[in-house]
Amino acid sequence: MYYQQIISKLYNLSEDANLGYSEAEIAALENRLQIRLPAALRHYYLSLGKNKAVNDTFNRLTSLAEVGFSEDEHLVFYEENQAVVLWGIAKEDLSADNPAVYGTYDSQRSEWFVDSYTTEHFLLSMAWWNGALGGLTYTAFTDLEEDLTPAVIQLVTKNWQEQQGISNQLLRFFTNDYLDIIVLTTAEDGAVNGLYVGTNDEGKYKAVMSTLHLEWCYRVDRDE
Question: Can you tell which superkingdom this protein's organism belongs to (predicted)?
């Protein structure tokens, strides 16, 4: 399934809703920077670029007015919620339709790592992560040691299908039909240190809660 269809299905977005920037707005950006955006990023801004739930719940897709080059010529278009991490595309890769996306934690923005091997996968990972962190209606999370046992992790891996090859960050994504998303955060050694759930489907949420009998640090039906 095409990545924007996956996002629209998870967030229950209408196909005819106007959720993006106009062609004229994107053309103005391209004229300002004297570039053409890669096809995958360009289409994303056109179709979903102004949707706050998808793009600005935790990490943030930058507005077209803010898109620009770092000193070492990465086109920066996404930032972590405290701007500790920035993500961008190397200038020499802009001619590709679906280039890799790099991230940097370096305050001097001089060291970049490959976050995702394609722009589409990067944007999908951000939509999933933002959804689990509050962009979706029904969410829950836990980082309690008593919740994150090998038996619980096995329940996740047994009942949901892992979506592999999406991101090189310490995140593991699970879903079956793209109506819910489960995210496991991990340490460098692979140990799971957080479990996040997000969906817009109340039935799916109840099914997750009935499968994973956890204490939870937060769950929307209990804590709001």
Answer: Bacteria
Amino acid at 95: S
Tokens of 43: 């289409």
For the residues of 113-141, what is the DSSP string, one character each?
Answer: EEEESSHHHHHHHHHHHHIIIIISSEEEE
Mean predicted lDDT score pLDDT of the chain: 94
Structure tokens at 49: 């670029």
Q: Write down all domains in the chain, each with its CATH number in brackets.
A: 3-125 (3.40.1580.10), 136-223 (3.30.310)
**Residue 161's closest CA among 147, 179, 173?**
173
pLDDT in tens, 144-166: 999 999 999 999 999 999 999 99
- pLDDT, tens digit, 9 for 90 and up, residues 163-192: 999 999 999 999 999 999 999 999 999 999
Give strand ranges (E) for 97-191: 101-104, 113-116, 138-142, 161-162, 171-175, 180-186
Is the CB of residue 124 less than 8 Å from the CB of residue 183? no
Its pTM surpasses 0.70: yes
84 contacts 76 by C-beta, under 8 angstroms: no
Helix (H, G, I), strand (E, B) or coil at 176: coil
